[in-house]
Each structure stands twice: as C-alpha cells, then as structure tokens.
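name: query_chain
kind: protein
chains: 1
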Amino acid sequence: MSLLCFLWLLWTMRAAPGAGAPDWLPPDLYVRLDPLAAFVLPAAARDFVSTLLPGLGVLLLAVLFGRIFCGYLCPFGATLDLVRFLGAKSKNLDARTRDGNDGRARPWHWGKYLLLIAIVMAAALGVNAVFAASPIPLITRFYATCVFPLVQLAGKQGLDVLRPVADALHLNALAYVQMPVRRFEAIFFTLFFFG
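structure:
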C-alpha cells in the first residue's frame, strides 16, 4: 500500500499545481520520512530543517521497533520485496533457497556500514552525499527516470495501435490525444545501478 501511495505522489508531482495531491499531503512525504536524510542533511547544511523532523521520528521508531521503516513504509524495500516475490514465483523457489541464504554474513555485508560512515563523515565536512545512497532518492530516481518513461512509451504505443480503430469508428477525438515520452540521459546508469 505504501508503494502505491509513493507512486501516486510521484505521478502527481508531474501535474499542474492544485491538480495533484491534496494540500495536506506533501508530494515529498517520503523524503521527509527518510531517516538518513533527516540525520545527514541538517548536518551537512549546518542548519535545522524542520520538514525533516518526521524522519527523525522514523529513526526513533527504528530504535524502538527495529526496521519498521524498511519493512513497511519504504518504497525501495517494497520494490525489492515485489521483485523477490515475482522472481521466486517465476522460478518456483522460495527466496531463501534462491539467494543461498544460509545465515552466514556475506563478504560485502559490511560495505553498507562503510558507506554509511562515509556519508556521515562527508556531512561532518559539510558535503551532502546522502542522495547517492539513500533509498528514497534512489527509488524516486529509478521510477521517475526508468519506469515512468516506459509506462509513457507503452501508452504512446497503445494510442498508435488504437488510432486506426478509432478512425474506422469515426472517433475523431482520439486523433488529438498525445502521450509525450520523456527520455533521460541517466536512464542507463540508473538501470545499471539497479540491475
């Protein structure tokens, strides 16, 4: 459900002001809930950022209840769970068997902690490196630059297929419907990173 909310908010950010999400629901809600951004951005900026207070609340919840944000709210985690679920269904294997997870730590397991230390040290030096590794900006970039353009391309192809049918049925209004397809320079880097 959280992933659907995230995708809807991301989609509404494309709309004209007032046509998207309601005023009480900020379109950058998930960035505000990002614990890493809430901790690192104010440190790097050397300034208090009040809109990031919900992220500190999520950090406190994580201390009390564990990985509640990653497990139930984070769209990155939900995307990974969805990919694992679909992968396990297509191979008829459960995730533990497919991943070879026997409970031992993998050699790269400590890399995430080294990355976290590097980001915190960069923030202490006044450099904002949070958007290079924070899950919310990464998944936002993935959906905005990779997935949404593919959806737009599918919509455009669908319109191209329907146009001859609409012309045969004298539905002239479809001739005026346009589906712009956006392309981004970073799409291949983003796809490589997520691959």
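note: The chain has a mean pLDDT of 81.
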